[in-house]
Write the structure tokens for this entry.
Amino acid sequence: MIEQLLKDKRLRLTSFRKEVLQIFVDNDKAVAVSDIEESLKDFDRITLYRTIKSFIEKGLIHEIVMPGDVKKLALCATDCNHDKGAHDHNHIHFQCKICKEVFCVDVPALPKISLPNYQIDEIEIQAHGICAGCGVLT
């Protein structure tokens, strides 16, 4: 799976890229760069940042910035086409008020918003509440 994801995005298959990508595949939540650094055994920080930049540019991962939180990164949907200049999958970013984790939650469609005299290329929706792991779903 890891190798196919890299091939699909036309990224060279290196052991380091596979190791970094595995961290995203293994997590159902967004991860901070510090989390990635803790997961790696031996790495060069410059190589890590270049790898992350390549992953973002190719639409393999995307950045999430929630108010008052550090920037986090999450795996994109397999059908994300970053060639258009924006990530184009339908999800919201949900942050749990208890555990503070950030999740990408798929939704059938994002609301259509039209602003006179503006061109909207991308919409990002953030939600805050309690995740399934921290609360009781009714």
